[in-house]
Amino acid sequence: MGPPTIGYSNLMATNTTSKETSFDYIVLGTGLIESILAGSLARVGKKVLHLDSHQNYGGNWSVFGFRELVQWHLERNKGDTAEIKEGDLSIDYEYNYASNFRNVELQVYNTNLASSEGENTRSAIEEGSYKELIPKTLFAQDQQLVDAHFSDLTHENISEKLPQIRTFVELLNKSRSYNLDTTPKLLGTREDLVETLIRSGVGRYLEFKNVDDIFIFDKASRALEKVPSSKEDVFTNKSVSLIEKRKLMKFLTFAMELNEQQEDNPLLQNTEDMSYCQFLQEKFKITGKLQEAIVYAIALVDEKASVKEGLDSTHRFVQSMGRFGKGAYLCPLYGGASEIAQAFCRVCAVYGGIYILNQPLDRFVVDKETGECTGIITKEGQEYKCSQLITGMDYLNASSLPIRDGHTGAILVTDTRLESRDAKQYLAEPLSYCVFPPGSEAGNTDEPIYGIQQNDESMACLRGQYVTYLWTASKDDSVLKKAVDLLMEKKPTVTEDEDNNREFTKLITVYYDQYVRNAQSLQASWKPPFKNVVVCSDPDVSLDFRSAFAEAKSLFSQCEPVDAEFMPAAEQEPEDED
Questions:
Q1: How far apart are CA 238 and CA 242, in angstroms?
Q2: Residue environment code for 371-390, b if the CB has 16+ CB neighbours within 10 A, otherwise e
Q3: Domain residues for 545?
Q4: Low-confidence ranges of the chain (pLDDT < 70)
Q5: Can you tell me where the transmembrane regions are (predicted)?
Q6: pTM
Q7: Which residues have CB under 8 Å from 331's CB, separation 6+?
């Protein structure tokens, strides 16, 4: 059976005023959690108005073409201008959204100019007409992005900058070929979200590819090494000794057969105070690199994880293998969470939900007697009323937002696949994920670095290019740049081949800090600015969608606690005019 796939769709919405003005729910923001709620509430017959102040879907879960990435970078570096006082009911989404991302860096690379081009450049500089050397974009409005990104251009640095400008313009002209994800995640094949996509029919709007390979960064070789993550991998992996293969197969079999009734299993006796690492060592004699691979790359936990936490995660992994392919994860095409969010938005629209994108909002309307939010007013003065409000964090007054944690992210686009040390034997598949355990050469002493590698098969980039996403909760904000440098190093290989002499070339790098606010964990210490509001969390640092989907289901039950089924099985679909 293949991944749940029934074509790709692009739900479009207008920014015109709706004739309807009164709704059961108003949903602000098209992030993943907000969109799941909008779709599920419309599905059970509720009247939903779904608004977003941006023209694209996703909110803090956004996916960008190169043009949108440049715009996002420029807007994030404008600086803060708003001053919002406590108790103010105004909505300044742009200010809040901009403050959610910090230290955004975008760099485009290229090779040196050919000699003839260099001569032309020098001649133009001498004549004072160097700006005529700047290539033109296909779309006139994109020329403003070129001017803004290269605002420091002078006759003194034009020779150095011109190759970069040419690449920049070429990327703008091919912007639609890129889907670059600010919150990359993978979908476990046994996650509840997968079951919901299949049962409810939402999956008809999505496409997926199976993620077959896992890599871990090895300290000794300073390179990615393949993790034996399936029975096939165990038998073919030559970096694992025969004795270790037997230990691994014994453990994976144990994890596969694990169930809730195994509390009396002798291997689990007296393990309450034991860490997962200790359990692997004492019960299965698994140590060293193999233990590190199981803990960080398969279970996706850390050295502090309990036995139960580690075994539960490993059990989910081995149960997920082989459902839609060799691997345990699926990669959504055309972008991750943003694409899934858009699929739920489409369901909402099919069941009567109204969408207005690119809609600036002015303020909330609150009943002074009850303290409840009764609606919102747009910048044009249009009022929409609701019985209950659902919102992403960035639509709330900045002074009322909870304290934020954060993580750093990186996007790397290259013209060469970032291969493992034994490139010929363990050539990475186009879709894979990797982990830098704490203590790696990248300097991440406190937290792991996670990575997802994609290419044109996931519609992330042009054919012949590769996209690597990296992110970490490490407090050291320099570790991702070090990790990129490590990945870009030329590695010695075990085979001779002319391709081994090819250097890796960076095309694009993006670095950014992103704040993470979890509404559920802050309920005890944070009071929402008004009653009858449901607040949705930001994306977290996890590899998968489990926590986001669990929150969406919980909030649905909070909104509709009686006789309402969350995303019931697909029925005869209403007529869809798109």
A1: 9
A2: ebbbbbbbeeeeebebbbbb
A3: 22-64+84-101+333-402+518-559
A4: 1-18, 79-87, 111-132, 260-263, 398-404, 419-429, 490-504, 524, 572-578
A5: none
A6: 0.89
A7: 186, 187, 208, 209, 210, 211, 431, 452, 454, 458
